[in-house]
Amino acid sequence: MKKKNIVLALTLTVALSGAAFAADEKKDEILAKVGPETVTQADFDEVMAGAQPSQAAYFGTPEGKRALVEDMADSVLFYLWGKDNKLTETEKYKETMAELEKRVLAGMAMEKVLSGAKVSDEEVKKFYDDHKAAFEVPESVKASHILIQVSKDAGNDLWKKAKKEATKIRKDILAGKVSFEDAAKRDSDCPSKSRGGDLGFFTEGQMVPEFEKAAFATKIGDISDPVKTQFGYHIIKVTDHKDASEQPFDEVKDGIRQQLLQQKQRDTLSEYVDKLKKTYKVEILLPELKKASADKK
C-alpha cells in the first residue's frame, strides 16, 4: 500500500505540473490504452524524470514499471471523467490554466531570449589567460600522524610523559617492531586513527603552524621527530608531496564556459528586463525599504 501511495503521489505531481499526458504526436510504444487516450513510453519517461533515485530504482523493475503504468492509467481515468463532467468550464480550471499559461509563456520567452547567449572558444581561452592566479594549485602534502594528546592546562610532567611516549612509538616504528598505521590505530588519540592516522592532502594554512612546518619539511616516507602543538605531541609520516602547479586549460575549460555563459545569460536577461520596462509599466506596490545610513555604525 505504501508504494501504491508513492506512485499515485508522483503521478499526480507530474499531472498537475502539466508535464504528463500531453498530446503526443511522436510514434512511441503504447504501454496502456484508456478509452480514446494512451499512456506511452514517453509519458512513462516523463514521470520517471521527476522521481527520486529510490523511486526510480523501483520503477525500473518490471513490477515497478507495471505499478507506475497502472497508476498513470488511473490518472487518465480521472482526466476523462473530469472532461466528461465539464470541469474544463469551471472557474477554477480557467484560473489554473490562465496561471499555467503565464508560467509557460514566461519560460518560453526567457528561453528564446537566452538562446542568443553564446560563449566562443576564444572567450574561454582569454578568461583562462587573464585569470591564471585563479587556476593555481598550491603546494600540498599528504601525511599521517599519531597524536599523544595533552590538555592545554596540563603540567610539565604530563607534557614530558607525552613526549617520551611519542619518542618510544617512533623508535619502535623505525626499528620495524610495528608499522606506522598499526601504531596509529593502537596509540593515537586522533579520530584519524581508524584510517591509520591518514589526514589526506592539505595545503598551507589548513593545519596549526607547528604541525604544518614539520609536515612540509619532512621528506616522503620519512617520520618526523615528535612535534609539539597545542593538542599534544605528534609523530608525522609524509606519504606524498605535490609541488605548486597550474590547472591545465583542458581540465577547466568546460567550467569556465559554463561560468561565462551564466554571466552572459544574467546580463542578457537584465538588458531585456530594462527594455521591457519601457514597453510595459511596472509598479511595485510595496513600501520602499529604508536604506541603511552610510555613517551608521
TrEMBL record:
Pfam families with a match to the protein in the record: Rotamase (PF00639)
Recorded superkingdom: Bacteria
Signal peptide: 1-22
Name this protein carries in UniProt: peptidylprolyl isomerase
Keyword annotations of the record: Isomerase, Rotamase, Signal
Gene Ontology molecular-function annotations: peptidyl-prolyl cis-trans isomerase activity
Cross-referenced Gene3D superfamilies: 3.10.50.40, Porin chaperone SurA, peptide-binding domain (1.10.4030.10)
The protein's enzyme class: isomerase
EC number(s) per entry: 5.2.1.8
Reaction it catalyzes: [protein]-peptidylproline (omega=180) = [protein]-peptidylproline (omega=0)
Span of domain PpiC: 138-240
Coiled-coil zones: none
